[in-house]
Amino acid sequence: MIEPVAQLQTKNFSNPYHDVMGRSLVTRPRENTRFFLESEHQVPAVYDPDLGFSYDNRPQHDLKKWAQWLCDERIPLLAGELQSHYRLLQTMGEILPTDGSLQAFCRYEFQDFCVFTGEVPSPVLKGLRIKQATSADTDKLFAFYEKSETMKAKSKKSLRYTIENNKLFYLQKTGKIVSSVLTHCESPEAALIGGVYTPEKYRGKGYARICMEVLMDAIQKEGKTPCLFYEKNNTSAKQLYQKLGFQPYGDWVVIEMTYEEAKN
User: Fold this and answer.
1) Structural element, H or E, at residue 248
2) Are the C-beta atoms of residues 256 and 108 closer than 8 Å to each other?
3) 3-class SS at 48?
4) Half-sphere exposure of 95 (CA within 13 A, CB side)
5) Of 67, 101, 107, nearest in space to 84 by CA
């Protein structure tokens, strides 16, 4: 049986890197974070509208309970370690007959997941100004990310939460933001980096690398490991992160779900 629980512990999630989202939400729940436990096998799960659904399926047991629960709850976003989450997606397909009352559609992206365990080099700013964002920067940073096709913030509220509870650094040139990077979530052991965005006209100048190095240094100073994931066919991201020293750790998948009631 899958039951909602008031709270979980970080030890419920076995891997400090693959389970960074679950562990971060355990230590710092958000306004709409929900925790669950499949009692028979003690499988923990967490769902947050901004970060999605993530669980730790160590036993690799029958996933029909979780698949049915996802459909019943209409969970729209899943993200995490590839094998367990993709098996869950496949199981959803098995339990939903094509002529049933509910139809589920998905879009998924396979991701490379990497960690950084080396020494961060001192960034060369070249007269540029880099700043850690405060809540007063929310509006201009929201407008900055709105220019991106893939990096748009879900809302000003979610971006403000990131600024106030995680980390966001941005680089300015002649008063204009030219690059930015943030952490989506942070556990006691790791920080998940994302939101790496530089407008096209400013690319190729090393701005994203500077932002990354400053953020990675801030993460390491707190005793945490920087980690991130990127879409497998994103060669520019792969080149940047390899140059920075990130090492492959495994595979992730991000799954976006939509549900429709079948028409009579």
Assistant:
1) strand 247-261
2) yes
3) strand
4) 17
5) 67
Per-residue DSSP letters for 131-196? EE--GGGHHHHHHHHHT-SS---S-HHHHHHHHHHS-EEEEEETTEEEEEEEEEEE-SSEEEEEEE
Q: In a 3-state reduction of DSSP, which class is residue 83?
A: helix
| Residues 214-237 pLDDT 10s | 999 999 999 999 999 999 999 989
Give, as one character, the DSSP assignment of residue 121: P
- Range in 36-50, 113-127, 201-215, 246-260 the model is least confident about: 113-127
- Count of residues making up the chain: 264
User: Is 0.85 topped by the overall pTM?
Assistant: yes
Are the C-beta atoms of 110 and 253 separated by less than 8 Å? yes
The secondary element (H helix, E strand) that includes residue 253 is strand 247-261
Tokens 């204009």 sit on residue: 176
Q: Residue 80's pLDDT is what?
A: 96
